Amino acid sequence: MNAKQIDQQTLLKDEKDPLTHTPVHLLSLDNVGKHYGNIVALTDVTMAVDNGRVTCVLGDNGAGKSTLIKIIAGLHQHDAGVFKILGEERKLNSPREALDSGIATVYQDLAVVPLMPIWRNFFLGSEITVGWGPFKRMDVQTMKDITKKELADMGIDLRDVEQPIGQLSGGERQCVAIARAVHFGAKVLILDEPTAALGVKQSGVVLRYILQARDRGLGVVFITHNPHHAFPVGDRFLLLKRGKSIGYYEKKGITIEELTAQMAGGAELAELAHELEELGGHGDVVKEVQAEVAGTSGHLPA
Amino acid sequence: MTQTLTKPLAGDERVGTRNPLQKLLGRPEVGALVGAIVLFVFFAIVSQTFIQPNAFATVLYGSSTIGIMAVGVSLLMIGGEFDLSTGVAVISSALTASLFSWYFTTNVWVGVLLALAVSLTIGFINGWILIKTKLPSFIVTLASFLMLTGLNLGLTRLIGGSVSSPSISTMDGFKSAQAVFASSVNIGGVEVKNTVFTWIILVAVASWVLLRTKVGNWIFAAGGDANAARAVGVPVTKTKIGLFMAVGFCGWILGMHNLFAFDAVQSGEGVGNEFLYIIAAVIGGCLLTGGYGSAVGGAIGAFIFGMANKGIVYAQWNPDWFKFFLGLMLLLATIVNLIVKRRAELK
Question: Is A149 within 8 Å of chain B by CB?
Answer without folding.
Answer: yes
